[in-house]
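[Automated response] Your request has been received and processed.

Submitted sequence:
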Amino acid sequence: MSELTQDRIPDPGRISAVESADGITGDAPPAAPKGKRPQHTGILLVVLGAVFMALLDATVVNVATPTMRTDLDTTGSALQLIVSGYTISYAALLITGARLGARHGFRTVFLTGLATFTLASLGCGLAPTAGALIAARVVQGLGAGLMVPQIYSLIQLTFEGPARARALSLYATVIAVAVVVGQVAGGLLVSADLFGTGWRPAFLINVPVGLALLVAAVRLLPVGTPRSAKGLDLPGLVTLTAALLLLVIPLVLGHEQHWPLWMTLCLAAAAPMFGVFVLVERRVARRGGAPLVPGRVLRSPDLVCGAAALFFGMAGYAGFLFSFSQHLQSGLGESATRAGLAFAPLALGVATGSLTWQKLPARWHLPMIAAASALAAAGYLGIGCTLRAGGQGGLVLPALQLLWGLGLGYTTSPLLTLALSRIDPADASDASGVLTTVPQLAQVVGVAAYGSIFLALADRPGTAGAAAPSAVASAQALYATALPVAAGTLLGALAILPLLRKRR
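Generated structure:
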């Protein structure tokens, strides 16, 4: 029997004790009756299937945008909103989604989010216009924002010890692999042109999968009693959402719109708005309310350092993945399917690292994260140098992608475990909201920042009226992008240093 089924559910009495002390609780799974074991493996499959579907949809649309543009006769800005509308609404709701789970029950909110996501996927697949598709994508992101934060909490409250670490490793593997698989799946579905539907199956495939997950979730997820009476902190929600929108909208639209003044002003106002959010949260706490992000969660060095390292790692990963995919399709002329399949060594490396890091002694884990960040940085630089002349890279390219994947696998999974390792189960929902928001923002920032470098140097491939870049120009743009990506990844290693010093 696997360790996932051998581990026990946390004692409900322990959760209640935390509730009385802190006023915050989780939706604790009930204890299994004697003679029966909870279906831990089934629970894990359901929640990982849901997050895989949610993250897959964040990337599967990328390779479908050229077909969408022709079919819907839309503009480049509308395409940007089709891609980014999902991520914006997703990132904005994550922390509040975690709070709703603690207040109304993780199972209830998970099912609500999954149902919303599935219904919105149907709307995306049937959308007659670009405007309808953008609206459906926003609703789809809201569904994901309700669903995904519950997964951390369900894992935290269902698994303990080695089983929890393994579950979080699997979760991290799904996060990284879903992005790569999204590239492949999008290419295959669009190229297949099932029944002449073009890009639509990229969304419609979620409908049967989502319905199957809903049926399984209703049967398998534990029914718990909501134990949190915390309010939703509407002032915090409004100011945080405003800060996120001021940051995200210019980043995702600025390059294509040639950075008009209003976008520059929005980006400049993002930092002060985050400062306003901090002040609002402190005021809520002083008045005895329940701030959206409790100060004690952010005072955890493991969470802060782990989240910082995760941000730099995921930003580099998403930004370079986007640029590399553009180079393969626009620079080298590969089909969407071939370009997606080219990332198989990366997926293999990520999966290998995510599933094997726990076999190393615990005292090696922090140095391992720093070393793996350097390994990923070497992979970025190696790929950039190998392809700089405009060639295909030969057998060296898959080897470098494997190196990149191993570096990512040996950082992302342990970082997720590290960041939550000392969080009280009662704070699982708030911590999970923070930690789930970080990779999403990192991906938006990474694609916008690093992707803008690539697109600017490669003569903006894929925009209206622009000629396709030459293989050499595109390759040199990829090399130029690899330099800051590698530097940013190394900053992630530096974020771990305070914990290394502390634990010597």
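Summary generated for your ticket: Residues 28 and 224 are 6 Å apart (CA to CA). The radius of gyration is 22 Å.
If you did not submit this request, please reply to this message.
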